[in-house]
Amino acid sequence: MKIRIAIDPGSSSGCMVIYSEIASAFRLDVFEFAKVDYYIIAEKMKQCLQFHGDRDISIKCIIEKVHSMPGQGISSTGKLMENYGLLKGILIANVIPFKEITPGTWMKYLPFKKDKLSGKSQWKTKLSQLAKQLYPKYATRNSADAILMIHYFEQIY
User: Fold this and answer.
1) Which tens digit of pLDDT belongs to each residue from 69-83?
2) Spatial distance between the Cα atoms of 32 and 26, rounded to a whole number of angstroms
3) Is residue 50 very low, low, confident or very high in pLDDT (cuts 50, 70, 90)?
4) Contact 7, 87 (CB under 8 A)
5) Disulfide-capable partner of 84 in 2, 9, 37, 93 (CB 3.0 to 4.6 Å)?
6) Sheet of strand 58-64, all strands in order from the earlier edge strand to the far edge
């Protein structure tokens, strides 16, 4: 059995996706941070570990490594960094091994490249469309990055 977790910290649209695979069946749990609080996220990770107990299990996680960007507001930068720190703390507290990856790391495996002339909204729409093709039942605009990260995770690891 394996569990893969992908986390997009986001300042307002972050998301965590937990991919569980037993034999040939898989389950995807999507937690958009705008809709749940960190206590729920921490509890879901703990439940994930407790549920599988002594079974032979492989748990790995990737979390998007974030930083402030030029032109980004102070408030949104603060929220982004707060999310990032809290999520890393939850992983550490649950003894879940994780690897920090930059957006460029997983995005270079997309079937298309970011057009420098397109805006953030257009780029997000392209990511959402691809995520919906891969996992139509689970993808939303806010979960697209984390879903594509989990897809990248499955391809690379």
Assistant:
1) 666 677 777 778 888
2) 20
3) low
4) yes
5) 9
6) 25-32, 15-22, 2-8, 58-64, 98-101
Question: Measured between alpha carbons, how far is 84 from 98 in angstroms, rounded to an integer?
Answer: 13
Residue type, 81: M
Quote the CA–CA distance of 1 and 114 in Å, as a whole number.
35
Count how many residues are written for the chain.
157
For residue 129, CA distances in Å to 45, 48, 125 come to 28, 29, 6
Q: How far is CA 133 from the centre of its chain?
A: 17
Residues paired with residue 133 on neighbouring β-strands, in sequence order? none
What CATH fold (topology level) applies to the domain 2-156? Nucleotidyltransferase; domain 5 (3.30.420)
pTM of the model as a whole: 0.85
> What distance in Å separates the CA atoms of residue 75 and residue 127, rounded to the nearest whole number?
25
Spatial distance between the Cα atoms of 32 and 15, rounded to a whole number of angstroms: 4
